[in-house]
Write a structure and sequence with these properties.
The complex is a heterodimer.
Chain A lengths: L3 H8 L4 H23 L4 H15 L9 H18 L9 H6 L4 H12 L3 H12 L4 H8 L3 H21 L1
Chain B lengths: L2 H11 L4 H9 L1 H18 L10 H37 L2 H22 L2 H44 L1
Classes of the chains: A mainly alpha, B mainly alpha.
Chain lengths: ~170, ~160
């Protein structure tokens, strides 16, 4: 089976099957990351834009890098841009989210907890907790030192623990 | 930041090792905070996350079509240009000798024709001959990169089929 790095190399020379395989492998993690990061808004557009940016940049992909880190870096940058946009009109997405979840109540609670975090802390928590990325990989994605990843994660934990305690 | 922070974060991530658990057992602060951290971990873990709609990947593949086509064009060029450059260099190597030979040929023909034909007519015939030689050279050198690129593409496709 071809590695992710081999597949993105093929995408760089226009291979659609390679892109389909990568989409299949990363569909869930990427979609969930975006959904949790944005609270469920514009997820499909962001998902599509992540892949379009990946395809556009694929010819320049450095094979010594890990594809997963690279694609999450694109997604994180998109989320940053998304958070900088002017606040959208309120959109009630609970129905949409609940309809696709196995545990809607827990997810909504987790969503509220995540929403209570500043964007930088949320990103670190999502990458470390939900996607199992190492401190080093997370630092690479965010373009910051490992110590910053650590301190953001500690801050997120403290904040959420306090919230859980006060609930 | 303290060792307690590392331990509590490891608990949250489900990565607490024996040493961390031992620390929790003996440290009053960690023991006090552990239930909240465990509850938080359980709350976060209970969220399976939304499922992407089935139409999403086909939509992405459709939208990526033009970009993939562009990548294919550029990829083909990147893969073939070294072969094209090599072929052109090889073809240009004998060019000075060809030019010297052609000029000598044209001069010899002009001298030969000048001896038996009126000056104007021999000049006209020699000019035509020279123009034909230039055209032949231009066509030959114009065809070199095209043929080299085609050959490189065929070799690439064959390589992809076999490996």
């Amino acid at each position: 089976m071809a590695s992710d790095e081999e597949l993105i190399g093929r995408v760089g020379i226009g291979n659609q099957d390679a892109l389909a395989e990568l989409c299949r492998r990363y569909e869930r993690p990427l979609y969930r990351f975006l959904a949790r990061h944005t609270g469920g808004r514009d997820v499909e557009d962001l998902f599509q834009e992540t892949w379009l940016r990946a395809v556009r940049a694929a010819p320049r992909f450095d094979p010594s890098r890990r594809f997963s880190t690279w694609v999450f870096q694109i997604a994180v940058n998109l989320c940053r841009d998304w958070h900088r946009r002017p606040p959208p009109e309120p959109v009630e997405t609970d129905d949409n989210l609940a309809s696709t979840s196995d545990a809607p109540e827990a997810r909504i609670d987790a969503r509220r907890l995540l929403a209570a975090l500043p964007e930088a802390q949320r990103t670190v928590l999502l990458l470390r907790h939900y996607h199992g990325l190492s401190e080093e990989e997370t630092a690479e994605i965010l373009g910051c030192p490992r110590g910053t990843v650590k301190s953001r994660l500690h801050a997120a934990r403290e904040r959420l623990s306090r919230l859980m305690g006060s609930a | 930041m303290t060792g307690c922070d590392d331990v509590l974060t490891a608990l949250l991530l489900g990565q607490a090792d024996v040493a961390a658990l031992e620390h929790v057992r003996t440290c009053p602060r960690c023991r006090a905070e552990e239930p909240a951290v465990q509850a938080l971990a359980a709350q976060l873990a209970a969220d399976p996350g939304p499922t992407p709609p089935p139409s999403l990947t086909p939509r992405v593949l459709t939208a990526a079509g033009p970009l993939l086509a562009r990548n294919a064009r550029r990829g083909a060029w990147r893969a073939t240009w070294p072969a094209v450059a090599r072929a052109l260099a090889a073809a240009l190597l004998p060019l000075p000798a060809i030019l010297v030979f052609d000029v000598a040929l044209v001069r010899a023909i002009y001298a030969l024709l000048g001896a038996v034909l009126p000056h104007g007519l021999s000049l006209y015939l020699v000019f035509n001959h020279a123009a034909f030689l230039v055209l032949l050279l231009a066509l030959t050198y114009g065809a070199v990169p095209v043929l080299a690129a085609r050959q490189a593409r065929l070799l690439l496709e064959e390589g992809h089929r076999h490996g």
